[in-house]
Amino acid sequence: MAELGLADHLAHGALDTGELARRCGAHAPSLRRVLRELAGMDVVRPAGADAYDLTEKGTALRSDVPDSVRSSIRMLGEEGFWYAIGMLPTTVRDGSSAFVKRYGHLYDHLAKNPRSGRLFDEYMTARAIPFTEGLAKRYDFPATATMVDVAGGKGHILATVLHANPHMRGILFDLEHVVDGARQTLAAEGLAGRSEVVSGDFFAEVPAGGDVYLLASVLHNWDDEDALKILRNVRRAMDPGGRVLVLEVALPDDEEPHLGKDLDMRMLAIFNGGTERSRDEYADLLGQADLTLTEVVELGAGASLIEARPR
């Protein structure tokens, strides 16, 4: 349903199966069988002879609604991700990712496969919306600070923070093949005059002199050794009175259910060493980088903002 865009096609009212198949480029008899199953799942409902309408639950699969889950579901069905989860037993037996053995590192795979890369960008943009809004609303940024968004991607988080804090400036730092998209985003948002885009490798160094360094969904991609390299480079680059903000899904330290534990299975499947961590594990990691955890702000949707300052 997500891949064919059925919810988008049904957004303005019921369609018969033949017309819906024509619009989404599907084989009508096969689609009819899928719609029957979707009706049983209460994401569509019958609307006359051989016609279907969207339910309230199914609306979440539209592309144009707040909290849309379409991009996340499509990402789960992407060839490499699907393979990774299917091969999870092999990964657990071997202790190394079957995905990495077949496809290489995730970001190399995405760079080699533009369709998958675009799909991942859509997923990350949609996933970041609740975190980003929570970050802008719930964290008290220094009024005139310069924030360095390390591995800032297309710049959506930085743009949201700068709009919410009109006296701040920003530096977006990411790999060379990523930063052109960030320049376009920041220019389109009218922020080119308050921002700078820098390319580089965070395992080598990060831009110096920032007041706030944001690592959003970065550290969970790496094992402790590599995560420490990143944090130590940030610690060396930051001003003495600066702070580090780690935006991640922080796991509880007990056995209570948590979205992050499901995400951790996906990290296990896709990365060698990538892992979701608990607050205590982040506190220990930050301590090894000469940083002290000073505050944790809950952002919703399972995400936490962990603030740390130099010891």
TrEMBL record:
Keyword match Ion transport: no
PROSITE patterns: SAM_OMT_II
Gene3D superfamilies membership: 1.10.287.1350, Vaccinia Virus protein VP39, Winged helix-like DNA-binding domain superfamily/Winged helix DNA-binding domain
Domain O-methyltransferase dimerisation residues, every copy: 2-60
Record keyword tRNA processing present: no
Record-linked SUPFAM superfamilies: S-adenosyl-L-methionine-dependent methyltransferases, Winged helix' DNA-binding domain
Name of the featured protein: Methyltransferase
Native source species: Nonomuraea marmarensis
